[in-house]
Amino acid sequence: MNWTEISVLTTSEAVEAVANLLMNHGASGVQIDDEKDYEKLRGQDWESQGEILNVDEIPHIDAGAKVTAYFPETVFVSELVPEIKAEVAKLQQFGLEVGEGTVTAGDVAEADWATAWQKYYHPVHVTHFLTVVPSWETYTPTHQDERLVVLDPGMAFGTGTHPTTKLSMQALEMVLTGGETMIDVGTGSGVLSITAKLLGASHVRAYDVDSVAVNSAQKNLDLNPVAKDVEVAANDLLTGITTGAQVIVANILSEIIIPLIPQAWSLLPVHGTFITSGIIAEKVAMVLTAQKKQGFRILQTLKMGDWYAIIAQKPGEDD
């Protein structure tokens, strides 16, 4: 089958929003080329890790980010391009800097994108205990406590390599001790739901507004037997949800976290934990202020590059 690609030149801040936008238009997969990812690779001492890697030999964008989506030949993409241009421009209304915002389309053979990029994707050690492993890789844990999150990133939005996902996973590792109930808002690939089950959560519900994401999450959940009982469904944030949980995690845009805050408050018990990520540096003060105004007590903020995650708690009357 032949495929058509639509590429959007944008900023690191807007990549997840643009990727979601493209998936909502029926893309069968997305690829993100972000200069900040390569900056982090350049900063690592590969020789000390027993690897030889010349980052500059890997094809990559020189500035900003490019999000490329792939559509089957049955989709008439020339009609989509102006719609996508308009929607990318509207992201600025949510305070996102979209950069160039250039949208282009072109033909590509299935073999060119379906597997070629896989050689650049390898197991990622997110923490000492958590490693994200692509489904096609054979990987042996390095110690008995290492837990593997198996993903097919070709299906989904989050691969475990983006700072916002890493921060969320680290926060879950800090919070979960075993037996907790959890809600994963904006689940995307399902990576955080899988992580929670690996860390001992007893019951996890996962929601995403996009049915494409729900299907992708389910496929990744199926790759991880520990997550077979995770309930995943389409839903707009926590609207209409009445059954609470001890932990609520959301790795979503800062602007979308704001309306989620009162919903999370109403569903958390006293001393329940609210983890939020996807917060760019320019928006962290806004999110912290909104959470404190609601009544949350900020336990910790985590930072990786320009991205933040917040661990907050619903206090009791005597706290």
Automatic annotation (TrEMBL):
- Cellular component terms per the entry's GO annotation: cytoplasm; ribosome
EC class name: transferase
Q: Which residues cross the membrane?
A: none
The record's catalysed reaction(s) read: L-lysyl-[protein] + 3 S-adenosyl-L-methionine = N(6),N(6),N(6)-trimethyl-L-lysyl-[protein] + 3 S-adenosyl-L-homocysteine + 3 H(+)
Q: Enumerate the UniProt keywords alphabetically.
A: Cytoplasm, Methyltransferase, Ribonucleoprotein, Ribosomal protein, S-adenosyl-L-methionine, Transferase
A biological process term (GO) from this entry: methylation
Q: Its domain of life?
A: Bacteria
Protein role: Methylates ribosomal protein L11.
Supply the NCBIfam families for this chain: prmA
Provide the family line: Belongs to the methyltransferase superfamily. PrmA family.
UniProt protein name:
Ribosomal protein L11 methyltransferase
Q: Which organism is it from?
A: Secundilactobacillus kimchicus JCM 15530
Gene this chain is encoded by: prmA
